[in-house]
Amino acid sequence: MWSIFKSKYNRNPIIIKDIVLDEDRLVQYGEQIGGMYKGDKKVNVKRFLLNRLDDNFKTIEKIYLDFNRNVYKELPKGTEWLLDNFYIIELIYKQLKLELKEEKNIKVRIIEKGGPSKGYPLIYILALELISHTSGKIKEDNIKGFLNGFQKEEILTLEEIYHLPTFLALSLIEYIREISFNLMNTYMIWEKMDKAQLVDLGILLEEVPNMDSREIERLIRKIRKKR
Hints:
By secondary structure, this protein is mainly α. It is 61% helix and 5% strand. The chain is built from 9 helices and 4 strands, in the order ββαβααβαααααα. The protein has a two-stranded antiparallel sheet. A two-stranded antiparallel ribbon has the order 3-4. Mean pLDDT is 84; it is low at 1-7.
């Protein structure tokens, strides 16, 4: 499945293939993308990181507030985690923003080849790849294996390794943003299907080939309730 960071809750989409990998496959994948992500030009990305962090947090906050206003309704599985842990996300956001502001500059390589990751810091995309392929459950062995695999093709600079903890934290916020968006997207689909009229069931059934799995599941549930 391809996860796309988009919608009114997002800008500057990044596409990440979010298949969970075990430690051995993570090493292999690191080696594989070592031949994909190339960058020699170093850029001060401090402003980019601050803007991205703000954008990600504002998106998470907006979705959190939307869910909080509708807490009396049925919400997708996982929403409770966001509602319960938003204050922790906010604390991490504030701490990260403070740390970034204290840095004079953060000069790392950017990805120069084409594709959706072009122009982004190489180490930022690597951190996001790692988090996405471990469902955010990163461990020291995962980090070492993944980066060692990557460095068989492309050696990281000292600056990139030094700033890795910060980039992992920033990417984790981005990952939470993706999860939040997916939860909101599911909720909006539920709302749409719940408001659909079952007067002409034939017309609705004709639309099934154009629906995604969440729409079909909700439609089936609606039909069962009407019986």
